[in-house]
Amino acid sequence: MRYFSIEGCLYSGQAEIIPIKPETDNAGVGNAGKELVESKAASVHNYYLITKFFHMEKIVSRGIIDSYFAKLKNNLDIDVAIVGGGPSGLVAAYYLAKAGKKVALFDRKLAPGGGMWGGAMMFNDIIVQEEAMPIVRELGVSYRAYEQGTYVMDSVHTTSALIYQATKAGATLFNCYTVEDVVFKNERVAGVVVNWAPVQREGMHVDPLTIMAKAVLDGTGHDCEVSRTVARKNGIRLNTPTGDVIGERSLSVEEGERTTVENTKEVYPGLYVSGMAANGVSGSFRMGPIFGGMLMSGKKTAELILEALQ
Ligand SMILES: Cc1cc2nc3c(=O)[nH]c(=O)nc-3n(C[C@H](O)[C@H](O)[C@H](O)COP(=O)(O)OP(=O)(O)OC[C@H]3O[C@@H](n4cnc5c(N)ncnc54)[C@H](O)[C@@H]3O)c2cc1C
């Protein structure tokens, strides 16, 4: 049994107070309503009140369900589907949304942000080089100048700033979603096939849903999951030296940073790659916890997609 004060209910608008005569049958009113009314009302008023509760529990559940399903329905047919909420995906989402495109980003983790949260070996700071600083400044990230044209920033602060700015610009973020395949139509990538990440992890036989998109961005990091799936399943050649996903090479910071941006491109009609996925498909180096290349790759992808969608 739950009790609310009548004054509180009136004040917060959670209840509807209806004056009635004492002998009136309180038909249609739940027990909780009756008890509240009878014990309180006599001391305050000369007549009984019927209080209809708008149970807060129901409002919370209904609010979430209404809002979530409206959001999902609104994103069934979009301009750009971004797979992976690492730094490159988030920056791409920010610039695309800022340009007015309908963008949804899917990440299988509860907390998007990819490999940026942990800095290096869980030392939660990252390095960004001068070339990428205009992006850092535009996103309002705090930083400190370090040596040789590099800057240090807190990785948790930076990651949350990217998430905040991308969503604030209008991108919709779906976490706990795995993109398990693409929609392949008329010899181009035309959308993504999504399922709950735990469904995939548990190996449950549950069919996915589809999201149609004019462009799909593979920002899945080292594993280049989307590009790999497209190449493996459709007997097509990607725009890479071998026509397939080559796989990343070992660590070389400057080379890796340069090629991350160079390899950011459309690898198949409708399918773009950014960040480590760009280096992975083209067989370039990884680079460790320097993140300027990832940010610049995200911005470059957004520019390429915007140009293509014009
Ligand atoms: C968890 C993690 C830890 C890392 N730790 C280190 C490290 O310690 N040192 C280092 O040098 N580099 C590390 N990296 C890589 C490094 O962080 C990357 O160089 C950089 O973060 C790459 O950025 P990105 O934009 O390519 O995407 P990433 O940061 O790699 O993020 C990719 C995102 O895609 C999501 N994703 C992948 N596949 C799917 C899918 N099918 N559906 C939906 N979402 C998907 C992942 O959940 C992830 O959030 C790590 C990457 C990850 C993901």
TrEMBL record:
Biological role stated in the UniProt entry: Involved in the biosynthesis of the thiazole moiety of thiamine. Catalyzes the conversion of NAD and glycine to adenosine diphosphate 5-(2-hydroxyethyl)-4-methylthiazole-2-carboxylate (ADT), an adenylated thiazole intermediate, using free sulfide as a source of sulfur.
Signal peptide: none
Biological processes per GO annotation: thiamine biosynthetic process; thiamine diphosphate biosynthetic process; thiazole biosynthetic process
Chain positions recorded as Fe cation binding sites: 207, 222
Source organism per UniProt: Odoribacter laneus YIT 12061
Keywords per UniProt: Iron, Metal-binding, NAD, Thiamine biosynthesis, Transferase
Subunit structure: Homooctamer; tetramer of dimers.
Necessary cofactors: Fe(2+)
This enzyme's EC code(s): 2.4.2.59
Catalytic activity: hydrogen sulfide + glycine + NAD(+) = ADP-5-ethyl-4-methylthiazole-2-carboxylate + nicotinamide + 3 H2O + H(+)
Pathway: Cofactor biosynthesis; thiamine diphosphate biosynthesis
EC class of the enzyme, as a word: transferase
Stated name of the protein: Thiamine thiazole synthase
Segments forming a coiled coil: none
Binding site for glycine: 286
The encoding gene: thi4
Pfam families, per the entry: Thi4
Binding site for NAD(+): 88, 115, 179, 205-207, 276
Gene3D superfamilies: FAD/NAD(P)-binding domain (3.50.50.60)
Similarity comment: family membership: Belongs to the THI4 family.
The keyword Secreted is assigned to this record: no
Gene Ontology terms, MF aspect: iron ion binding; pentosyltransferase activity
